[in-house]
Amino acid sequence: MRSTTVIIFGSPKIGSRALQQGQTMALNLPLRILFFEDANGQTWATNDDQTALAPSHGLAADHPAVLAMKGASEKFSAAATGK
């Protein structure tokens, strides 16, 4: 199996704001980023887009907590990949 790592992170302050409006958002919390190596040896990072998932949990895509989660995921991924 090629190198595969899942990083789990979150902020109770941000997550609880989302859960107050859409409890089922807990299915996607804490946030996760998957880092994996493909068959060519290239490393990739991927994660769920919180703004795409939010409506299925009763939250607007532009809910402040959802946007904060998306921003945190982007910052964490950028820091981890050096991009």
Radius of gyration: 14 Å
Structural class: alpha+beta
Helix content, binned percent: 25-40%
**pLDDT average, as an integer?**
92
Low-confidence stretches: none
Beta-strand residue fraction: 15-25%
Distance between the termini: 26 Å
User: Element order, helices and strands?
Assistant: EHEEHH
- What kind of sheet is the major sheet? 3 strands, antiparallel
Shape: elongated
The tally of strands reads 3
Question: If you had to describe this structure to a student in words, what would you say it looks like?
Answer:
The protein has 83 residues and is an alpha+beta fold. Helix content is 39%, strand content 20%. It has helices at 12-21, 50-53, 64-81, and strands spanning 4-9, 31-37, 43-46. Strands 1-2-3 form a 3-stranded antiparallel beta sheet, covered by helices on one side. Helix 1 (12-21) runs antiparallel to helix 3. The longest helix has 18 residues, at 64-81. The protein is elongated, with a radius of gyration of 14 Å. The chain starts with a strand and ends with a helix. The mean pLDDT is 92.
Summarize this structure briefly.
It is built from 3 helices and 3 strands. By secondary structure, the protein is an alpha+beta fold.
Distinctive features:
single chain; 83 residues; alpha+beta; three-stranded antiparallel beta sheet; 3 helices; 3 strands; 20% strand
